[in-house]
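Lab notebook, bench 4. Still working through the backlog of constructs that have no structural model yet. Next entry is a single chain of 416 residues. Request: give me the structure tokens for it.
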Amino acid sequence: GGGIGGLCLAVSLTQQSHVEVNLYEAAGQFKEIGAGVMIWARTWHILHLMGLSDEFAKIAHALPTVGFDYRRSDQPVEGARFKLVEMPYGCIRFHRAAFLDVFVNHLPAGIAHFGKRLVSYSQASPKSPISISFADGTVAECDVLVGADGIKSCIRAQMYREMAEKEGDPRLLHYIDPIWTGTMAYRGLIRAEDIPRSKDGLLHRTIQTPMMYCGKNKHVVSYSISQGQIVNVVTFASEPGKQGESFDGEWVANCDQAELLSCYAGWEPEVEQLLKCIRNPTRWAIHHLRPLPFYHKDRVVLLGDAAHAMSPHQGAGAGQAIEDAFILSHLLSKNAPFDLDLSLDAYQAVRLPASNKVLTGSYESGMMYEFTSHLGEEYEKLGPAIQQQWSWIDETAVEEDLAVALQLADKGLCAI
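Model written out:
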């Protein structure tokens, strides 16, 4: 797959002359859906280690000094801050397409193959080459198959179906399909210059500060991208009781502005002012995965959303995919063509618990923003709890995680 995770892995592996890499993308070109992407300091450090930070810096918005400004906003009068989440370097924001292009520009010619929708894979024995079949009738062969094919991953589906049959455990089938979180989101982009100034002539606060406008069962996220020229807005409306229910409609659909404004009618003026600038919103059904019990079987391995698609409430999806790629690329380049199984075991041992923690925490964070967690509207407890949800950002350094993975691969000690 040619999303952020797959491209990051491919670029990292092509820096190693002894590793042959092929990237297969179902679409006719690289493309990303969505508008904004944010990363945190640990992900930025990985980009620096890859030698890409200078180019990403050219398309990033200026680094803020905070994370998000949390504000109670579901009332017609002016709202009030209840928590300012501060962290080193804050969140670094990009336009998603520009972010992807940096990786694309560093991918050597001949690596990418388009119009290749994978249908299935097969392997005669655990250590034999893997044959992969595409919808256009072509086939290819590889030593390691990395499924970076997104939240609806067909590689994950085949892996878990086969393991359910082999182990006689139908419970594994529950990990195949994504589940609806009970949340709908509306997305839109606004030119910063189109947002009216206040009566005092001041810029809208979200142009300078990433904002989290919170209300009961709803919240609105807004932050600037494209070096401050564009504001990305994502609003959320949740029915917590529907978490895990099937969603039968289209996951992404166009909708009219009236639907968006009706959903947030009666919110504080600066929120309504912002939403009125979104002329053509899109509506998204937010899905995520159940935390998976394993990421690889033999030499087939999952990465990014295929492994841990998560709700967007911590802006962590892209960063987690990049961390996967960072760890996996170093393990494969160090041990290829030997000890591939130990490398994949080590990748799983390090990345599975870490990313599952963020997956679960992201959903919990969304509940906190909408006052539906066990803390309700107790601001004195809620504010510090929200801050603590971001602790994964600096609990470990990426070099420490890599060192652990390499040590596990060397010693073959990979229990999770």
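Notes after review: Residues 152 and 328 are 21 Å apart (CA to CA). The chain has a mean pLDDT of 92. Flag for follow-up if needed.
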